[in-house]
Design brief:
eight-stranded mixed beta sheet, 16% strand, 2 domains
Length: 436
């Protein structure tokens, strides 16, 4: 079987969960000897420069990894403004690879039109789409958080979305919904790492029968050993890993750290390992600097990190804190915390609450509440044997072999169903982006 995996980025340049998950799948399928072949197409954009003759680049990855330079991106329609590249270099590449399965992990930069182009070129191929967040549903970066005071949004409608984004009419948002659903309908199967996300998309109108729950796999090496403690020492090192954005809740965490009573906090430390701060709005960066300064010696910001550094960084902490103020889906850091037996402390919503059992293998706190998180941190610092009990109960995340096997089963089943239902006929073209 030949599988083409399409991603909006490559983990060599971005450590987002979708990039890591898609590339892990690519590597795992290729690790299955010569039985299956996987190819990886990642989007590239500025500051990388496009070749004069073609948008395709190699960037010195493996022979089956290719980049497509695509920066004519319309975030409202999730549309590619450079359709000539999709009809040219992208189509030539897909035709040369001749995949049995094309698996999209994102269309950012490439556009929904990439799904249509694959269907036109390869009518018998299986098209699979993995959802990593709610980008098709929500205009607010796919977070399903309202623009006013970051209130959580439980379902979308054109009227509600227009209230968050008054520059767009409810009618335009409804057209967007139809455009996206029309293109997503061309996929034969959808994958989600969480039940919570499946429920949100089913509520939005995608057929639940097309969804398959497959947890992301980890390149599971040896777990980092517990941090050595001096006589009488405590499990008092907290760690944050991930992107430094407003939705990740670092402002909640820093506020909470400053609230823990001095007698309880003692010499505890919060270690922040995160990138992307330079790309945030000025107001966010100023507030982050203010909160970091207020936390004083209680918090240290180490900046971004590479994926291969994570085991060494996990070895320096005892607890992993995931304070996101949006629903999340299946945060990679939770799996990594479980692998290294660092109990996660997470917001009690969405995919975080689904993955972590409160009081069993981790702790929950009320999302968006620095007061409740401060109480949770105090409990972690004070309750005898809590860390030992939670760490011992950590579930083992799926390894890459299982991750690949579950996808290959889905691919085979989807191809078999398509073969049974094959009856010919032309591909119906979805609605196009309305002219400006």
């Amino acid at each position: 079987m030949r599988v083409l995996i399409v991603s909006h980025g490559h983990p060599a340049f971005s450590i987002g969960g979708a990039e890591v998950a898609s590339h892990n799948l690519f590597r795992a399928i290729n690790g299955d000897g010569d039985v299956h072949q996987a190819f990886y197409l990642a989007r590239a954009a500025g500051p990388l420069r496009r070749h004069a003759e073609t948008p395709l680049l190699s960037l010195r990855q493996s022979e089956r990894e290719v980049f497509l330079h695509a920066d004519a991106w319309d975030p409202f329609w999730l549309s590619n403004g450079a359709l000539d590249d999709l009809g040219g270099a992208f189509s030539d590449y897909v035709t040369q690879v001749k995949p049995d399965v094309v698996h999209f992990h994102h269309v950012i930069g490439l556009g929904m039109e990439a799904i249509l182009q694959v269907r036109r070129l390869l009518p018998r191929a299986a098209i699979v789409v993995t959802f990593h967040e709610y980008l098709s549903i929500c205009l607010n970066h796919g977070q399903m958080v309202k623009t006013a005071r970051n209130a959580l949004c439980r379902q979308a409608s054109p009227a509600d979305c227009a209230a968050c984004f008054p520059q767009h009419t409810a009618g335009a948002i409804f057209q967007r919904e139809l455009f996206l659903k029309d293109h997503l309908a061309l996929a034969d199967a959808y994958v989600s790492p969480s039940r919570f996300l499946i429920e949100r998309y089913a509520d939005w109108g995608l057929p639940a029968r097309k969804f398959h729950l497959i947890e992301n796999g980890l390149d599971s090496g040896a777990p980092a050993p517990p941090r050595p403690l001096a006589d009488g020492g405590r499990r008092n090192r907290f760690g944050f890993f991930g992107q430094v954005t407003e939705f990740k809740g670092l402002h909640i965490l820093l506020d909470a750290v400053a609230r823990v009573p001095r007698a309880v906090w003692g010499d505890a430390t919060l270690c922040i390992f995160g990138g992307n701060l330079d790309n945030q709005p000025d107001t966010f960066r100023a507030n982050f600097a203010k909160l970091l300064d207020a936390a004083g010696r209680r918090a240290r910001f180490f900046g971004s990190y590479r994926a291969e550094e994570l085991p060494r960084l996990m070895a320096q902490i005892d607890w992993a804190v995931v304070p996101s103020i949006w629903w999340e889906n299946s945060p990679l850091v939770i799996q990594e915390a479980f692998l290294h037996r660092r109990p996660p402390i997470v917001s009690d919503i969405g995919g975080m609450a689904e993955k972590v059992a409160d009081g069993v293998d981790g702790l929950h706190f009320r999302a968006g509440s620095p007061e409740d998180l401060a109480d949770c941190l105090a409990r972690a610092l004070s309750e005898p044997n809590l860390w030992t009990r939670l760490a011992a109960a950590a579930p083992r995340p799926p390894d890459l072999a299982r991750f690949a096997a579950e996808h290959l089963r889905l691919y085979r089943a989807t191809l078999a169903a398509k073969a049974r239902a094959a009856g010919g006929g032309k591909v119906r073209a979805p609605v196009a982006v309305p002219a400006a």
